[in-house]
């Protein structure tokens, strides 16, 4: 075999970017990989779109198909890149490709978050590689960093801004003072948000990604159904302003932490100190902070989406396959960083058992006794207040903002439900988790 033969499923923004970068940087890539890597087949439902993009040379050398099965059944193909998206058709195609002995490269986080365990165990039996650098934080080589670069460490926690759409929206809300709906419309106009932005704004995309990072950080099976998810669609400008006044930024943070009793995996709006590096990741950029025992904190920053950045990650995986496809599978980097027979059954903690600190905004009538009644409830639930500010909007109604020390989530929820029924409390309490990230 004098070149590595690749079949590409899906020729959208990322697929065409992969084809283009492979072509532009072919010589460098071949020098690194040890042999040429060439796309020999592309399957897409819009064959004309693909053909109109390819040069005459490509059209002579690449088969353009509208049937994905012809591609994955082609014995000439060594690696299948899956860039179709979604989680039903790609699952079938990937399992069949594995059965056919192909190595797999995919950017499909939704698929891996739901079906990764099955895909990896099937691939393990067959002795093929499944690589997914592009599935988390686009062009940032975070999977490689955790699986290989940090392999000496016990990882303590990971916190990331791993959804560019929501980071763009929150940055714009802070910088312009506009509300969520207006900024979301702008994000759609600029092409940051999908027409149906649910996966992004409700935190699901970030949850897929942090679920995968948690597995490779702690050596646990992928457990997306136990990941806690809360999006940004209910956030209001008022809390962004108060957060700023208190020295915090409001971000959608994806976190996974190892604790004595188990592992936390959660995605939610979070206040983080304004002087920490993550707080200054603006616009659609992504960043991941990893706290490990030997090296301490390391941080990775870059573009989490887009044609060439994502292609960069996909091609890195193609090079990895090319360098090691002949290696005995036992000596390859394991799918989830830990050897398949050494995965752990650490419990995933329920959100009620999470320990962190909290921002509580309580809108009340401004009269004597209010603070003492609220404080008593907080004390009853063992919640210690770190700081408190009162912001009056008019003579009778005021916002009281509490920042707590670390508390158990279920205590906070119980305290909130007791405070909300006090006669002088006017609205539902806004509760936002606060992370120190140190
Ligand atoms: N929709 C994602 C984001 C990019 O906004 O970051 C692909 O995962």
Automatic annotation (TrEMBL):
Record-linked Gene3D superfamilies: 3.30.70.260, Dihydrodipicolinate Reductase, domain 2, NAD(P)-binding Rossmann-like Domain
Residue numbers binding NADPH: 109
Pfam families on file: ACT, Homoserine_dh, NAD_binding_3
Active site: 209
Matching NCBIfam families: PRK06349.1
InterPro entries: ACT-like_dom_sf, ACT_dom, Asp/hSer_DH_NAD-bd, HDH, HDH_cat, HDH_CS, NAD(P)-bd_dom_sf
Listed pathway(s): Amino-acid biosynthesis; L-threonine biosynthesis; L-threonine from L-aspartate: step 3/5; Amino-acid biosynthesis; L-methionine biosynthesis via de novo pathway; L-homoserine from L-aspartate: step 3/3
Alphabetized UniProt keyword annotations: Amino-acid biosynthesis, Methionine biosynthesis, NADP, Oxidoreductase, Threonine biosynthesis
Residues binding NADP(+): 9-16
Documented EC number(s): 1.1.1.3
Domain ACT, chain residue ranges per copy: 359-433
Record GO biological process: methionine biosynthetic process; threonine biosynthetic process
Cross-referenced PANTHER family: HOMOSERINE DEHYDROGENASE
Xref: SUPFAM superfamilies: ACT-like, Glyceraldehyde-3-phosphate dehydrogenase-like, C-terminal domain, NAD(P)-binding Rossmann-fold domains
GO molecular function: homoserine dehydrogenase activity; NADP binding
Record's protein name: Homoserine dehydrogenase
Residues given in the record as L-homoserine binding sites: 194
Family as reported in the entry's similarity comment: Belongs to the homoserine dehydrogenase family.
